Amino acid sequence: MLAIDVRQLRKQFNVQKNREGLKGAMLDLFKREHTQVTAVKDISFQIPQGEICGYIGENGAGKSTTIKMLTGILVPTSGHIEVNGYVPFRDREKFVQGIGVVFGQRSQLWWDIGVIESFRLLRKVYRVSEDDFKRRLDELVETLTLGELLNRPVRKLSLGQRMRCELAAALLHNPSILFLDEPTIGLDVVVKTEIREFLKRLNREHGTTILLTTHDLQDIEALCSRVIMLDDGRIIYDGGLEELKARWGKGREVQFQFNDPIAIERLAFLTGGLDVRWSKENELTAKVWIPLEINVSDVLSRVVGTTDISDIKIFETSTEEIVREIYRTGSAETAADRIADPVRDEEAPTAQAEAVRS
Amino acid sequence: MISAYLEFIRIRFLMMLAYRVNYYSGIIIYAINIGAYYFMWKAIYGEAETLAGFTVIQMTTYVAVSWMARAFYFNNLDREISNDIRDGSVAVQMTRPYSYLMVKMMQGFGEGLFRLLLFMVPGMVIVTLIFPVTLPTDPVRWIIFFVMIWFSFLINSQLNILTGLFAFFVENNEGLMRMKRVTVDLLSGVVVPIAFFPEWARIVLQWLPFQAITYLPGSVFTGRLNGAETWNALLVQVVWFAVLILPILAMWRAARQRLFVQGG
């Protein structure tokens, strides 16, 4: 069964335009001009139950808007949306009973009262029976080590402590889908790791479907089997993380540290005939990008014999670099894919639009 | 679900209790206000027996009662809602299985209940000891009064909700909130009883919801309205309560369609 089913989803906002200068301000006073901004442009995707899916994109790509439509906060402009068998915005009160939501940047706990008071209030709000609540709370207190936090007021918690409490608060009613909007933002490495471990365990033991947005690609690498990448309101990649790496991580990078300044043209000349790309870091350092078809040793042998080298480092492409590269080019489809894979029809207009843009 | 709403009343009540300094300063502010109005009206009356049909004692009672009623119906729902909208936390509220506006109403009620019990009752005792106030002896009048200030609370909160929801449509509704506050204090009869307004203003005010907040319950309690007039006053309140539901629903619906959560 599908946990999330989204087809041709679109969201447009009317944004007020502020005209410039005093005259503009006076004009604005009487008649406002609006510009229409399309934050999400006819996206489609399906997420089966029990999957952990990462939803990534640059700031303003439409991630948060999508999450807000999926959780029933925003009403879509057009398109079909079904989560857990409900249309979120239409049956909001019934629908939210089955989901948990954590916004990394805003608290859902009540600021002035103790954590446990917030939990008790949520128990009543979600109509969880006393027995279920106790069992669930014990489990969450243990896995998230909340023990000594329960009686403190929320405003006295550190960010990491608060985030653990937020997660517990979102899970007290045992939702089948958990939405996380930047859950690890601003957290230190230790807490990040704890939260990732917790989410993995939650998914394994309760089969909870998790959809998370993040800027931290380590979150994605640690958790997600699938990634949906968004750019300018459109999906530019939807598939496995490994596949993304295999498709884009088609090379390695070698960094050379030379003893004497060296011109990049000379390096290019040395590797003439090989399909590699040189880039200069500074006077004494240069990087070369080597596609998979070419052996690193071939390149090394040509460079090492004729120049004075102090150090060599070899890098595999990280997810972060892949993603950066995709954003730079604006499309996750490599040229070869566009020819080899014309079946993915819903992405065809995307590719075209991107071509127009660039 | 009802138990959840009751929980919101309880928690707000406890939160009010936690901010004790606010509580003590509130009592002092109300006492000063009542005192100031008492002496002002005494000066205005001078030698006169009655003004606009009010005797001095009726006026004193009216001032005391209307301020005490204000303690119960007054809340900052407009500010709370507008803040929720502007900082985007209304989004979190929408992911909960309850009606946001109902929760706000309940929180306002928890606040009102706190002020009624710990503010109004002791305050009224003090005021009756200091100033020449006559309270009605008829228990029915007391019951009607409490029903009426319940409606005062509802109508005032509805106006607050409407004002607060404007934050969805304008970038800054600070001015609107201030205007509403002054308007309610002036036109509801806290500052000046409506009987003192010129004829044309009274006619206009009869068609506005503000008199239902202070003037009508105050008039019933001080015995200026009797018999059928009492029931009439209550009816006016009920009608306004029902009528004001409509713009709130319309606004809420429009807001959800064009909701633009600030901060992405």
Automatic annotation (TrEMBL), chain A:
- SUPFAM superfamilies, sorted: P-loop containing nucleoside triphosphate hydrolases (SSF52540)
* Annotated segments matching region Disordered: 337-358
PANTHER family in the record: ABC TRANSPORTER ATP-BINDING PROTEIN (PTHR42711), ABC-TRANSPORT PROTEIN, ATP-BINDING COMPONENT (PTHR42711:SF1)
GO terms for MF: ATP binding; ATP hydrolysis activity
What SMART domains does its record include? AAA
List where the protein spans the membrane.
none
ABC transporter domain residues are: 24-257
Q: Where is the composition biased (Basic and acidic residues)?
A: 337-347
Q: What is this protein called?
A: ABC transporter ATP-binding protein
UniProt keywords, alphabetically: ATP-binding, Nucleotide-binding, Transport
From TrEMBL, chain B:
This one is known as ABC-2 family transporter protein
* Source organism of this protein record: Cohnella nanjingensis
UniProt KW keywords = Membrane, Transmembrane, Transmembrane helix
Give the organism's phylogenetic lineage.
Answer: Bacteria, Bacillati, Bacillota, Bacilli, Bacillales
Question: Could you list the residue ranges that cross the membrane?
Answer: 21-39, 51-73, 112-131, 143-170, 182-201, 231-252
